[in-house]
User: Fold these one by one.
Assistant:
Number 1:
Amino acid sequence: MHHRKRILVTGGSGFLGSHLCKRLLDEGMDVICVDNFYSGSRDTVLDLLKNPHFELIRHDITLPLYVEVDEIYNLACPASPIHYQENPIHTIKACLLGSLNMLGLAKRLRCKIFQASTSEVYGDPEQSPQKESYWGNVNPNGIRSCYDEGKRCAESLFFSFHRENNIAIKVGRIFNTYGPNMHPKDGRVVSNFIVQALTNKPITIYGDGSQTRSFCYVDDLIECMIRFMQTDASVTGPINMGNPGEFTILSLAQTIIRLSNSSSTITYLPLPGDDPKQRKPDITLAKTLLSWTPTVPLEEGLTKTIRYFAKLLNI
Ligand code: UDP
């Protein structure tokens, strides 16, 4: 019998996970989606449940998991600052025990494994744009450290398994990504601003809005992930995954107000601790190794995302 490729996606009902599961199903794969629904919701994968090639398992990957698969995408971890700071100890467990369990599984199955690492490994970067060779500027005990250091230690685990056990690892450092399926209460800047703009509530800028971020539309990011997984075992990363277009948070607020024809005003709130002042990926490696480049400009992606939220909120 023809064997369909079977893929495990941890955190599969989260924002990126749900898009990845859909894309893999569209490409004819069998998908096992694992989630503990701590920050994800079943709503994002309700449509996929009708597909006989899709399987949803409620499980927390800080505990071992025994399944038979051909590839693993390890995305499980709360990724929004408000969520990962809500239970910092569990965030560290998701990064460390989760990675350890998934790497153990990859070792037993001798299969490729993708790790969702993050631009947060660069902390508050003193170099811009950030190249993969930059070691970062992370506060090891600040309020973001459960995530930053958790993800840094996860990278260390991945490379140790690669060096010690010859596991085919794919470590992708994901920069800010946005698009449909973000939770309206996700807490991150794009979803917050769009929901506020659509309901004509004040836009909450933390600090003076001069800090920068680079925003990648979700379809571009998923394309990058898939291409990375298809590379041969010599391509381990870390590879930056993101859109290098850099914007201040104030200009993002103004763009979202304009694109959603909103009458929202802007209100300034205190900047949370250790909030990075700038962030912009150098994507030379992704361009050369994966022949990938983001294609969706910010305003086009925001327009699609605004349409998604307008429908979700019945506006
Ligand atoms: N931010 C903001 N208002 C919000 C949410 C976030 O001004 O309602 C700022 C936040 O302080 C940070 C940037 O937007 O400087 C991006 O925040 P986000 O939580 O989306 O992700 P981060 O890149 O900080 O992990």
Note: The mean pLDDT is 97.
Number 2:
Amino acid sequence: MKLDTKTIAGLAEHLENCQLEARDTLKITEQHPELDWDDAYAIQDEILRRKLARGGRLIGVKAGLTSHAKMKQMGVSTPVFGFVMEDYLVPDGGEVATQALIHPKVEPELAFILGKPLKGPGCHVGHVLAATDYILPGIEVIDSRYRDFKFDLKSVVADNTSAAKFVIGGAPASPVGIDLSTLGVVMEKNGEPVAFGAGAAVLGNPATAVAMLANHLGARGQEIPAGAIILSGGITEAIAVAAGDTVTLRVHGLGSTSLRFN
Ligand code: 0L1
Ligand code: MG
């Protein structure tokens, strides 16, 4: 690690305040070009610690930048991992206060709900399918705290991978027997299809992203507990939204979920 504990705590406080006050900032590597991967995840961990200390509840984890479309959109080449809190979850068909966000975008994802804990290293797709109770359509609302979404990967990790809100819903189904690679998704904004794809866009199979996430946490001595919600990453590029927009995600055989920005 290149940063000391005080600097990590200060950067976590700064980034979390930007989230809580819906204001943007320059990427933190401008001030701290020496910041390394361990520093970036330590800042993310400190943001989580702050939320838990205030009574927040951790309900899941997420993989980001898992599709080639998304990697190309952001000019990066590796996935990143973050967490989601209970107050990020929007009821299916519910509303998101746009004013509480900086510049939200939406991503069509698959959510995995674990029936059993998942732990790396050595986690693979078979383990993910065996541990998953059910999968559901999920829309992630990302809201980078960095001005104009201009960042590098380490700054994004420190900023908890732009996590802000998400909705899940539709018809839960066991992933066993479903070909997740050919699972088709259509995301609509105000009734118009704006993004299409299939599960294969996420590293060939969204369960691969979940296995990578379990291995990432396993390398840090952590497991994903039973009951956790896992967002496996955007299947298409992210789509910008504004107040008044309604977004619906339809996934073949798994129904639909939606939210509205007020
Ligand atoms: O969930 C995601 O793929 C977001 C990763 C962070 C990058 C971004 O803000 O687009
Ligand atoms: Mg995402």
Note: The CA atoms of residues 125 and 207 lie 5 Å apart.
